[in-house]
Design brief:
alpha+beta, 5-stranded antiparallel β-sheet, 8 helices, 13 strands, 24% strand, globular
Length: 290
């Protein structure tokens, strides 16, 4: 019986926000595995006692990115880690968008502002500022050209904390077509979802935000599947990916662009796509027994 760790965060006294964990544990048990939800930063865990550790909802990692990457590297030496530590290292820093762009993948245009860099902000269109290490729209905000002073305060705060900022145009296609999340599991398309805009004008960068507003099932178009495939093919060293999520928006030309490529801990939205549960469980058991 393979032992599988579903790696999550420590919620303290609050309920765990990962709605997929309980049903996934049951599905893995039904598929012949022994499964448990395990906190990634629990010092008492012997990771070598698992045949597979699947990073599922380590949703506090972006506050502790260096610590988390070091954990992934240690755990990857102790057992099979999905996705692998090298993927975690590359994908946890959103500068990977530059790598995708260099490989010819259509992405949302992105500039990076590290502490000490000259600050140049758009003056003719809405734009978004967010950190290269972030999840759930943490430290992300949407600005009009006239909001320069507020955006500069955000950048100053982020740079004081040692964070590198991303500056992107606000993609107006989100307001029309939403953001589509194409999920892959075991190297194959699993399901897709659509959500509406996360960032509203005037919302403070340090305010809590709803990460997946108005989430609904979505049938991806051939163009969306093609762009997602190109993004996955551009991941360095062609690693084996147990899971992946490609978040797409429409550019000004109406064609899909990669907003983010989620290879660390993407929400699988199994609560929205229960028919995908057997596929996910089967793929995990197969990975654990290879």
């Amino acid at each position: 019986m393979p032992r599988i760790a579903l790696v999550t965060y420590d919620p303290g006294t609050e309920p765990n926000r990962d709605r997929d964990l309980p049903v996934l544990i049951r599905a893995l048990t039904d598929a012949g595995a022994e499964a448990a939800a395990v906190h990634w930063d629990d010092p008492g865990v012997d990771w070598s006692g698992f045949d597979l550790a699947v990073i599922r909802s380590t949703w506090d990692y972006s506050w502790r990115a260096a610590e988390f990457v070091a954990w992934a590297e240690r755990t990857g030496e102790a057992t099979r880690l999905a996705n692998p530590a090298a993927v975690v290292r590359w994908n946890s820093d959103k500068r990977y968008l530059g790598d995708l762009a260099a490989a010819g993948v259509p992405v949302v245009p992105t500039r990076y502002l590290a502490p000490g860099d000259p600050v140049v902000l758009p003056d003719d269109h809405e734009f978004v500022v967010k950190p290269t290490f972030g999840a759930g729209a943490r430290y992300a905000a949407r600005y009009a050209p006239g909001d320069r002073a507020t955006a500069l305060r955000q950048l100053a705060r982020m740079h004081e904390e040692g964070l590198t900022a991303i500056v992107q145009p606000y993609v107006r296609g989100i307001d029309v077509g939403g953001e589509r999340a194409l999920q892959f599991f075991g190297g194959r398309p699993l399901h897709a979802s659509r959500k509406r805009a996360v960032l509203s004008p005037g919302t403070a960068y340090d305010a809590q935000k709803v990460a997946h507003p108005d989430l609904e099932p979505w049938t991806p178009t051939p163009a969306e599947l093609a762009v997602a495939g190109r993004a996955l093919a551009a991941v360095p060293d062609t690693p084996e990916l147990l899971y992946a999520r490609v978040d797409l928006v429409d550019g000004d030309d109406g064609e899909p662009r990669v907003m983010e490529l989620e290879l660390v801990e993407p929400n699988l939205f199994l609560f929205l796509h229960p028919a995908s549960l057997p596929t996910v469980a089967t793929a995990m058991v197969a990975a654990a027994t290879r």
